[in-house]
Amino acid sequence: MHESTVHPLTVNDIDGDEARTPHPVPFYRDADRLFRAGAGGAPALGQLLAPGPLVLSPAAWEMRRHRFSAIETFFRVTRDLFAASLRREADPRIAELLINDCPVTFGFDHHRRLAASLLTTPLFFRTDEAPDGTLYEIQCPGSGWGDYELVRDLYAQYELLGSETSVPSLARGFVEEVSALGVADEPILHLTDNASAPAGVRYFINRTRPHLRYFGWDPGIKSIDCGLIRTHSFRGAMAEDFASRRLQAAKETGRPLFDLPPHVTFDQKAPVVLPFWSVTRSSFPDSVRALFPPTQLVTPDGFEMPDGEHITLVQFAALPKSRRYYYLKYAGCDPAWNWGSQSVTRLHGSSRSVLAALERAAEQTAAGSPWLVQPEQTQREPVSWTDPSTGQERHGVFHAKLSTFYGPRGLLAVLAESRNHTKVHSQADTVTRVCAVSSHTARC
């Protein structure tokens, strides 16, 4: 994989709409050109750009590399608990919690029919985490893969990567991981029906070609012949034209491989509860619990605080605001709610509003649509960005979020986002930058 895989366009190559409304700042204009060259159409990055990578210390990089084994343990134990519950060999509440809002078609019967070999764990995934490495959640595969590679390509074009730091190519890492899986010679089907940023997915796909081939991108490929299935939605994958045939073939031959497994377990936030839930807590080692903030289901009876104290909803809502730095999140698998900040509420408002939100969540949990509470882990960090209107460098101290990308063999890359808001997502006021590792110690 070479840096020149995607070339910036010239002004004459830009479509008419962009030619009429060029971006006033070359840094952003070139980002849009790279994006459109790689993704097709006329997308724009839509975020603020830092004027260079965030340099992580070797210790911060190594921590993210080392914890991969704990994340694998989390996946494996979660999968095994779910499988045992499906077989009625473990508490039935485990499977009930994880199947939650699945349509009947993809519910208990689907999961009990799955061959044991198809109860797999994620291949490629992305974290949402605080700068200190505390994980809020894990998504398979998650968004941002294309954003990372686009920003890295832009930095390379502007010679901002630096000679004393290393900024890995996520596209190159993905190609190497697919090769290690033994399916690099087989085409890939990447479903984008539930991707929150499909243009970024297209950019990433194009950056991994021609090393990898894709149905819908490369000639002579039949969908049924694809050896790796990528999707952003369990439901989407199971409703796809050849889903039944793919599952049968995978059972009999081991192909295709599923990036997001063909079961609902890892397409939701609910698994993060399991290391702390009284029903499943003893199955997880402390190294897994150390990955996450203490996370609990919201029930009509209340929930457990990080110190082990049980608290009712009324008691929690009555706490002073200084003790209510928590988030309330939908934890189930309904894609209408389970994305971005669609169903995330900060429990820092008035006692009345907090109690009302908790009571609604508890009622839904009792009805089979789980909600969780999670202590806030927000940290502010200094950040600089290039003003998209003037090109001048601006500075602030914003809430920071890092996303670490992993493949089947471990760490691939890290993306940093900063926003002057407690919810840090890829918004127009979010500063985006890729992360580098250096031999010099730097603050994460």
Residues in helix, %: 25-40%
Q: How large a portion of the residues is in β-strands, by DSSP E?
A: 15-25%
Rg on CA atoms, Å? 22 Å
Number of helices: 14
Q: From the helix content, strand content and strand pairing, which structural class follows? A: alpha+beta
Distance between the ends: 28 Å
Q: What is the average of the pLDDT values? A: 91
Largest sheet features? 9 strands, mixed
Number of strands: 18
Q: What is the quaternary state of this protein?
A: single chain
- What's the overall geometry? globular
In the predicted model, the low-confidence regions spanning at least 5 consecutive residues are: 1-21
Which characteristics define this entry?
444 residues, alpha+beta, 9-stranded mixed beta sheet, 19% strand, disordered N terminus
